[in-house]
Amino acid sequence: MNLWMIVAILFCGLTFAACATDDNKDNATQPDTKALNSLLAGRWYDEYESDWSVYDEDNKLIEQKDGRTITTIRFNVDGTGSYCSYFFSDEDHDEAMELRVAYDKEDGSFHYTSTADGNIVIRLDHQGSLYFPDELALSFDKANGTLTYEGGDLIPPSRRAASTRTLTHADEEVEALFDQWSTKQDDPATPDDLSGVTYDVIDKGISWIGSIAYQVFRSNPEDDMTALLKSVYTGPIEEPEAEANSRRAYGIKVPTNYYRWYKIQYQSIDDDGNPITLSARVSWGGRRLFSLGSFYEVRPNYIILNPHFTITNQSSSPYSGNAYEIPFMSGCLLLIQPDYQGFGITAGEKHQAYINHEVCARQCIDALKAGYKLFADVANVKMEYNWKLYVAGCSQGGGNSLACHKWLDTHEDFAKSWRFAYSYCGSGPHSPSVTFNEYFKQEVITYPVVFPIVIKSMMHVKDANGENILKGYKEEDFFSDKYNQYKKEIDEMVTSKLYGAGQINKFIFEHFPTTKHAKTGATAVALKELLSPEAMNKESEMCKKLFECFDKNDLTKGWTPTRPIYLFHGEGDTVVPYANSEAVKEAFPDKVTLYSSTKLWGADDHLPSCVQFLLHVATANW
Predict the structure, then answer these.
(1) pTM, whole model, 2 decimals?
(2) Gyration radius of the chain's alpha carbons
C-alpha cells in the first residue's frame, strides 16, 4: 500500500465495507423511485476542513498539513454512482489551493437504494481503501431540492461533525472543474531552451476579474483609451464579424473568475545591446466556487504572450496590474505580459524602445521563457497536454506581436518546442516607414505624442556594425524651433512615466495651433508645427537616416512567415494607418488574413479599433 493510500485511509475520503447486492440493484430502479432518481442525477459535492497526514510503512508520521477536502457523489438514474475525494493543502492561505489527491471515478463506484419519500442509502461495490461507513444514509427533500447527510457519518474521525450537512448540486462549470481534476493525462511537453532561465518574484496575489477591470479604469482616469473602455459597459457594442467568429483559437473548458498573478523580474538585452533586468506580469486562472471560499487553479490549455498597448505612464503597465489587456485576456490561459524596457522596474531609468521591433521581440521572448518557468515552478496545476502558444496584442503591442512572430518563425526549433500556432495583431505599426509616409501625406497628426517617443527610441537603432544610425544627430534636430521651446516640458512628461498619452497630447494641443483631421474631424496639429523642415524633407540626409532606422524595424521585409498571421485594423485609423496591415498582407499574401474593424461608436479610428480587438480576444473570436 503506498503512502497516499495510507493517508486516504486515515483522513481524506470514503470507503465502504459492504458490497451491493443484486437486490439493491433491482430496488434502486423500481417505478416509484425512478422520479426521485431523476432528481438526484448528476454530481453533488461537499467541502470541509480536514487534515493531510502521510505515514511510512512503519506507521510513522512523516508529514502533516491542514487543508480542505471536497467529496463528490455522482448519482445515475439506474441506481449506480461513483464518488471522488480531492484534498488541497492550505498552509498558506494567500496561496492557491494545491491538489494533492484525486481519486479516479472507478475507484468509488457504488449502488444505491432510494424510497419515494427521499431516503437514500449508498453501498460501495467493492472493498476500498478510503474511510467510509458501511452504509451512508442521505435524505433528499423534493420540495426544495436539498440533499443532506449527518456529518459524523461521512467526515473522517479526526474531524467528526455531527451536524447535518448539505450537499450542493454541481452546475455545468463546477462539473467541468471536477472533470479536469479527475482526468488522468500524460504530462505536457516542456519547452526547450529553459536551461539557465532565471527569475525573481517581486509580488504575487489572487484577484477577481471584476476588481481588475475596475482598477484599470480607476488608475487611468484621464486617458482616452479608458473613456472608450468604460463605454463598453454602458454603450451598445456591435457583434464581432462573422468570419472572426468562425476562428476559435481555444475552447474554454472551465470559465475562470479569479486570477493568480505574479510580478517577476528577468534578464534580457536592452536597445544598446547591454544586459538588463526587466519585469513582467504572469497570471493564470482559477475559480472560487465552494462554501469555504478557496481559490482553485484551472489548468491552462494555451499560452498568450501579450505585448502591451501603447502607453506612456507606469500606471498602465503590466507591472502595475492595470494594463488595458488584462480584463480582456480571459479563459483557461497562461498570460505573460512583458513591460518592455522603460516600464515596470526600469520606468525610472530607461526610455521605451518604441517601434524598435527587434529589441522588443527579444525582450518579449525572454519574458515568455521566464514566465513559463515560474508557472512550472509554482503552479498547482500543469498545462493541458495539447497546449499551444499564441501571440496577441494591439497598437504598439500589435507591431510587437508581429515582431515576436517573426522571431519565432526565424527560430524554427524554438517555435516547434513552444508549440507556436499563430499571431493575432491589432492595429499595429508593422512598417514604421509606411506609418511616417502616411503622416507626411496627411500633413497633420491626431496623436502627436508618437513623435517624442519615436525619436527617443530611434536614437538607439543600430546598423550592421553595431553603430547608432543617427549618430551625430541630437533629438532637437528633428523638431521645429517652436517645439524645442516646449521640449523640456514634454520630455519631462514622457520620461516621468506619470502622464498618459491623452494628457501629453492635450498639452501639445494647448500649446500649438490645431486643426481638424479632414477624414475624422478629430483635433490635430500640423506636422510642420512639430518637426523641423529637414526632418520632413525626404531628400535630406537626416530624413534618410531616420527612414533607415524605420527600415531596420520594417516587419514586411527580411523574413518569410511559416505560420498564419491574423491582422485586425480599422480602415479609418489615422494614428497607425491601415496601410500598415495592407503592407503586411501584400508582402505575405498566402499567410496573412486581414480583418477590417466595423465602426464602433460611429468610428473606426485607432482607439475604437483597439477596443474592438480586445472584445474579440475577450470572447475568443479570433
Answers:
(1) 0.81
(2) 29
DSSP annotation of 381: S
Alpha carbon of 465 to those of 7, 432, 473: distances in Å? 65, 22, 18
Could you tell me if 457 and 352 are in contact, meaning their C-beta atoms sit under 8 angstroms apart? yes
Element (H, E) at 202: strand 199-208
For the chain, give the longest Cα–Cα distance: 98
Strands (E), 375-435: 388-394, 420-426
pLDDT of residue 186: 67
The letter for the amino acid at 175 is: E
Cβ-contact 579, 199 below 8 angstroms: no
Angle at 488 between CA 483 and CA 489, to 5 degrees: 90
Residue range 326-344: average pLDDT?
Answer: 86
**DSSP assignment of 133-169:** -S-EEEEEETTTTEEEEEHHHHS-GGG---SEEEEEE
Give the chain's mean pLDDT. 81
The upper half-sphere exposure of residue 399, i.e. CA atoms within 13 Å in the direction of its Cβ, equals: 30
* Adjacency order of strands within the sheet including 523-526: 444-445, 523-526, 514-516
Q: What is the pLDDT of residue 469?
A: 96
Residue 124 has a pLDDT of 82
Residue 54 in grid coordinates: 502521510
Cα–Cα distance between 195 and 149 in angstroms, integer?
53
Ramachandran class of 470: left when φ > 0, alpha when ψ lies in -120 to 50, beta otherwise: alpha
- The count of C-alpha atoms lying within 13 angstroms of the C-alpha of 221, restricted to the half-sphere facing its C-beta, is 1
Contact 566, 595 (CB under 8 A): yes
Q: How many CA atoms lie within 13 A of 513 on its CB side?
A: 6
End-to-end CA distance of the chain: 49
Q: Are 26 and 148 in contact (CB under 8 A)?
A: no
Contacts of 420 (CB under 8 A, 6+ apart): 388, 389, 390, 391, 408, 409, 563
Q: Which of 415, 398, 370 is nearest to 280 (CA)?
A: 370
Task: Enumerate residues 6+ apart whose C-beta is below 8 A from 325.
Answer: 306, 308, 309, 337, 393, 394, 397, 614, 617
- Strand 42-55 to strand 146-150: parallel, antiparallel, or no bridges (unpaired)? unpaired
Using CA atoms, how far apart are residues 70 and 58, in angstroms rounded to an integer? 28
Q: Is 599 helix (H, G, I), strand (E, B) or coil?
A: coil
- Residue 559, helix vs strand vs coil: coil
